[in-house]
Amino acid sequence: MDTNESKIYIALLTGVVAHIVLLVFFVITIIRYQRRKIDFEDKRLLAQFNYLDSVRERIGIDLHDDLGPSLSLLKMKLSQLKAADDESRKIIDFCKSHFDDVILRLKRISFTMVPRTLQRQGLNEALKELVNILSDSTGIKVKYRFDAAIVNEQMGTHVYRMAQEILSNIVKHSKASFVHFTLIRNKNILELHIKDNGTGFHQNEVVEQRRGLGLENITSRADLLRGTIYLTTEPGKGVDYFIQIPCHA
After folding, report:
1. Please, what's the largest Cα pairwise distance for the chain?
2. 178 has which bridge partners?
3. DSSP label of 80
4. In whole angstroms, how far apart are CA 121 and each of 7, 54, 215?
5. First-to-last CA distance in the chain?
6. What are the residue boundaries of the structural domains of the chain, listed by start?
7. Which end of the chain is less congested by CB atoms within 10 angstroms, N or C?
8. Does an H or E element contain 88, and which?
9. 68: buried, middle or exposed (CB in 10 Å: 19+, 13-18, 0-12)?
């Protein structure tokens, strides 16, 4: 190889190496940008959910600690009234029964806003309480199983809120009479599975729009946990939510 050929070879080799270096630099820059974008989106979502949960907690505490006792006091005062006739007695009894209903609803709303059992006794007890309230208030039978003892607090909160959203959807929309609900840990995967025997819906329409049925909130919380949602449904066949979440703690 003469001198000119060597120079051309070296120039070509240098050009190829330079292009490879530029390509590698470009790829690394894109990867870093994507990671920063994902981190930023995670922080934004986490801040949004933390804010929503704090607002719920504040409203729930106000309802439980302020409005609840006030209603109970009014009911007590109402009970002290002496009816002058049968018509007055009927009115008083009617008001007392409605006070009981309002106080019960207030307790349920307060529990929904602030799952104190989650904070004090952990995820399993909070979900059992949620299931019991659902069954007692609607008559829907729930087969519940829990086998996921080691779940950190932040993950537990998001899992609880997803389950709460799904169960709320079942009550509002499904006309179901039975729900199968499991939360188990399979090695390093946390699996949330909730299935009902209700009316179902057109899956493609709802999933494409990501609107209605609280699906956007459920999806956002699952994304934050790097989880994957498998949703199966069709009209008349119920709804099957299966959510897998990486769990290394």
Report:
1. 123
2. 141
3. T
4. 76, 19, 28
5. 62
6. 1-114, 115-249
7. N
8. helix 86-113
9. middle
The secondary structure of 91-116, three-state, reads HHHHHHHHHHHHHHHHHHHHHHHCCH
What order of strands is seen across the sheet that includes strand 178-186? 141-147, 178-186, 189-196, 239-246, 228-233
* Yes or no: domain 115-249 corresponds to CATH 3.40.50.410: no
Q: What is the DSSP letter of 198?
A: S
**Under 8 Å between Cβ of 142 and 134:** yes
Can you name the residues that pair with 180 across neighbouring β-strands? 143, 195
Residues 6+ apart with CB under 8 A from 79: 96
Helix (H) or strand (E) segment spanning residue 128? helix 123-138
| DSSP-assigned states of every residue in 28-78 | HHHHHHHHHHHHHHHHHHHHHHHHHHHHHHHHHHHIIIIIHHHHHHHHHHH
Cβ atoms of 182 and 145 closer than 8 Å: yes
Q: Could you tell me how many helices (H) and strands (E) the chain has, helices first?
A: 8, 5
Q: What is the pLDDT of residues 138-165, one digit of tens each?
A: 889 999 999 987 778 888 888 998 998 8
Cβ within 8 Å of residue 200, ≥6 positions away: 174, 233, 234, 235, 236, 237, 238, 239
Per-residue pLDDT, 17? 73
CA-CA distance, 238 to 198, in Å (whole number)? 4
Q: Are 162 and 181 in contact (CB under 8 A)?
A: no
- Integer Cα distance of 162 and 245 in angstroms: 12
